[in-house]
Amino acid sequence: MSVTILDGPLGTQLNAHGLETPAPLWSAAALRSHPQLVQRIHRAYADAGAQVHTANTFRTRRRSAGAQWRELAEEAIRLARAALPPGATLAGSIAPLEDCYRPDRSPPAPGAEHAELAAALAALGCDLLLCETFPHVGEGLAAVSAAVATGLPTWAAFTAGYRADLLTPGALAQAAREAEARGAQAVLVNCVPASQTLRYVRALADSGIQVPFGAYANAGHPTEGLGWVSTDDGPARYAALAQGWVDAGATLVGSCCGTGPDTIAALARCFQTHDAPTGSAGASAS
Q1: Where do the structural domains in the chain lie, given as residue ranges?
Q2: 166: Cβ–Cβ under 8 A, 6 or more apart, which residues?
Q3: What is the Rg, in whole angstroms, of the alpha carbon atoms belonging to the chain?
Q4: Directed axis angle between helix 137-148 and helix 169-181, to 10°?
Q5: Model confidence over 52-72: pLDDT tens digits?
Q6: Which candidate, 208, 283, 225, places its Cα nearest to that of 259?
């Protein structure tokens, strides 16, 4: 079974280089202040073995960036393309309109705003659209519908939050079924502590979906030793947890907050990566 390796977080790496990532732009502020660093981080993930890369468009939307939103999205795509090798798969990130850990703040009619960003990312040349880090299933599904409408391959990633208490595994399984029904070509769980991710991956495995699934987890609490601060064995321990996800059927694996290129390199060594077809869910989709 082939495993496709996703990249890791950009914001964590910006912080590691001493940059602040304040709301509302978060990591998108670096597109203007430190574009070369953004490009270097993308390149570091490519060098580590990532096959699917996510552009820094998590907050390049009108609600967060105002009138400059499309210009920032275009810069994010340009920087990623310049850093990646030919043929690398580039995903455009579509995130919650408000807070990834506050589903109660999800607006009642998010579809139009997600459609605006999805259309822009498609026009700017993304290979696929990644609707990611949604704790509110309804908003996540609205984003999926908007992304699918562009004609690009669409992946859906839901989060149970940094305490794994925003979605149950059963709720994730139901979200996966609904996302697949709306046209998602892959479903993932992301930004849940790596030590607590297996039960969500198993829920995806048992959900009955026919599309590929996977996970990109965060490092959990710093005391777990999986990330946030440099440790000799953190990346290998993360990869060992990811082995459990793959054993459960996951074919898409990456990492989220608190990790970095070393984590992706450990995943690549563990799963002997193969080239991912552009715009697809990797060899597992064929």
Answers
A1: 4-285
A2: 101, 103, 135, 159, 160
A3: 17
A4: 20
A5: 999 999 999 999 999 999 999
A6: 225
List, for residues 68-118, the tens digit of each pLDDT value. Answer: 999 999 999 999 999 999 999 999 999 999 999 999 999 999 999 999 999
CA distance 206 to 170: 10
Q: What tens digit of pLDDT does each residue of 189-201 get?
A: 999 999 999 999 9
Spell out the SS3 assignment of 22-59.
Answer: CCCCHHHHHHHHCHHHHHHHHHHHHHHCCCEEECCCCC
Residues 6+ apart with CB under 8 A from 232: none
- Asked if the 4-285 domain carries CATH number 3.20.20.330, the reply is yes
From the number of C-beta atoms within 10 Å of its C-beta (0-12, 13-18, 19+), residue 174 rates as: middle
Count Cβ atoms below 10 Å from residue 20 Cβ, excluding itself.
10
